[in-house]
Amino acid sequence: MQRSALRLFIPLLALLALVAAACGDSSDEPDDAASESTTTTTEAEEEAEEATILVFAAASLTDAFGELGAAFEDANPGVTVEFNFAGSSALREQILDGAPADVFASANNSNMETVVTEGAASDPEVFVTNQLQIVVPAGNPGGVTGIEDFARDELLIGLCAAEVPCGDFGRQALAAAGVEPAQDTDEPDVRSLLTKVAEGELDAGIVYTTDVIAAGDEVEGVDIAPNVNVVAEYPIAVLTEAPEPDIAAAFMAFVLSDEGQAILASYGFGSP
Amino acid sequence: MTRSRPPWPLIPLAAIGGLLLVLPFAALLIRVPWSDLGSILRQPIVTDALRLSVVSATAATLVSLVLGVPLAWILARTVLPGASIARAVVLLPMVLPPVVGGAALLFAFGRRGVIGEPLYESSGFLLPYSLWGVVVANTFVAMPFLIATVESSLRSADLRYEEAATTLGAGRWTVFRRITLPHAAPAIVTGSVLCFARALGEFGATVTFAGNLQGRTQTMPLAVFLALESNREAALALSVLLVVVSLAVIIPLRDRWLGT
User: Fold this and answer.
1) Does residue A272 sit within a domain?
2) Residue B259: left if φ>0, alpha if ψ -120 to 50, beta else—which one?
3) Is A116 in the same domain as A174?
4) DSSP 8-state code for residue A31
């Protein structure tokens, strides 16, 4: 009896793991946190009711928007800002699938353009810029001095996959410099690339300046020549189907305000 | 086994359980671009990933057979201090998130790893970013399925045949080879199939330990995950291929359980 139960249990466990593995670790689904306001509001600033907005933001904005959201909540009592941080293309798909978001902040223009073209958002504005930088482990064991070193076969080189913005921009910079990269891995997102460099498992990678600052002492940055560097523009927009359009507009205005820009600058973002 | 009518409370619960498992696959099939499937499946990103997946899952199954069957025997038959802890540790990769396994592999066999660093310094050999790294990651995650299956078979086996062979003068190696292995053969086959199927779907440990490069380390689950970001049709086509290959591996096994 016990044996036959075990014989069934193990394959069942196996199937479960198989399915889980085959599905991959997909990005988090947006939670249904955007609560519905019962009153119609005229001015977000005057609103005294409890309200929540859901902001979909690029993963590279995680730390900066965390602080920015807290500052916005302090300035607007009763308002809660919730975030869904993920790769911009994953966020784009979730928005087009009808996720109940109020604001979309993308790490590149193309994902925003798709959302606007599909009618899910309008009037996007660029709120920050970000540049690329070479990231190397502390002490720079590979002796990397510039983007030309990405052609060196003896180094362990990592890029972001071409499918995600940092991989797309990185390839643009390499092409502008006329460098054929000898990369050993195309990491699925900027954080996993950064982790491998910080662990010393890669000699160099191309990430955003803000990532190098956020990673701290474990890594060093090597500048990419300005004439080949790519400036990534981050657009933000209120979504057409936003459950809280007024608060969403106020949040967007706050991001573009001097106070919001100062917070973003402290994380290494440039002004548009 | 006699067929019988189920007690009524089982029916709705079983239906919900079945739907939970089947509905997502049905939804997947609806979204698949069937008319373009042929041309999508001929894209290099698909053929490279398919080849790497089959090669690495096969290699991982062979390695698991060579290393896992002896380990299963040791765990099942010897009286070791702390044997139950050893059994738990061996099965740990089955329940841990594979990403954790990948990070652990990196700490052991990466360029800065406990074993990886001296190996790299002395020979220049590096497991990550190579097919060998994919095989190691697959083996790490999939071998416990083989071990668990074979071990439970060895523990419940009738020992009288082995004892008889021993009294007739057979050595321990001969007994293992001529009696134990043939008796465990069905479990070894089942375990190998589960191991292969699990290796085929491996994602987290592979991407964390071996990285992702088309034609070198990008297996089908990795290709699906990346294509989902930019090329949903290719992702869906790859998913269907993965489902078909997995079913082809699992269905014969399922028939075995039913005893047909």
Assistant:
1) no
2) left
3) no
4) P
Contacts A163 to B, Cβ<8 Å: 226-227, 229-231
- The third-level CATH classification (topology) of the domain covering B41-257 is MetI-like fold (1.10.3720)
Complex ipTM > 0.85: no
Same domain, A222 and A237: no
Interface of A with B (CB under 8 A): 3, 6-8, 10-11, 13-15, 17-22, 24-26, 87, 89-90, 93, 156, 158, 161-164, 183-188, 192, 196, 199-201
Strand A231-238 with A157-160, pairing: unpaired
Q: Of A86, A127, A71, A120, whose CA–CA distance to A271 is shortest?
A: A127
CA triple A126-A247-A28, angle to 5 deg:
70
Coil/strand/helix, residue B109 = helix
* Cβ-nearest to A201 among B110, B145, B190: B110
pLDDT tens for A214-241 read: 888 999 999 999 999 998 899 999 999 9
Question: Are residue A114 and residue A143 in the same domain, yes or no?
Answer: no
Same-domain pairing of A166 and A240 = no
CB contact under 8 A, A8 and B257: yes
* Domain residue ranges in chain B: 41-257
Chain B residue with Cα closest to A89: B229
| A104 phi and psi angles, rounded to 5 deg | -125, 125
pTM, full prediction: 0.77
Instruction: Quote the domain boundaries for residue A106.
Output: 28-129+233-266
